[in-house]
Description:
Elements lengths: L4 H17 L6 E5 L5 E6 L2 H4 L6 H13 L8 E6 L3 H10 L3 E6 L24 E4 L3 H19 L1
Parallel strand pairs: 3-4, 4-5
Antiparallel strand pairs: 1-2, 1-3
Helix pairs in contact: 1-5
Amino acid sequence: MEADLYHLMGLALQEARKARESGEVPVGAVVADSKGQILGSAHNQPIGLNDPTAHAEILALRRAGKRTGNYRLAGTLLVVTIEPCVMCMGAAIHARVGMVIYGAPDTKAGAAHSLYQIGSDGLLNHRMEVISGIRGDECRSLIQDFFKKKRQKAL
């Protein structure tokens, strides 16, 4: 693998900041090939699109599929600021993503390591490598600051 994961996570962080600026939970995702060429990128938009499936990962996978002309994204990297949920890991499995890389864990909904290990579940017909902690502190503080400010506004 030639892709620079630190750089790719930086691009995912840029996407997450776009989500934050529009009032969405700040999660960003990038789909790249093994050399690091971007195939799709996105940020959370379920509020703005009135779509519960409009997670950053899903939107990035859709864009990558459109760009490649294939719903199978074999050998690609899905780089996400926060550990993907069950829905997003399921989509990565169906797309045959080769590797999921995330920055910070999600102890309430994470399906790559925290609550479930969907990427390595032997009962499924595809498995992928999962790497965590790339720029983890930046990813964690971005989402923690967002929710801290949200709680302060509610007071």
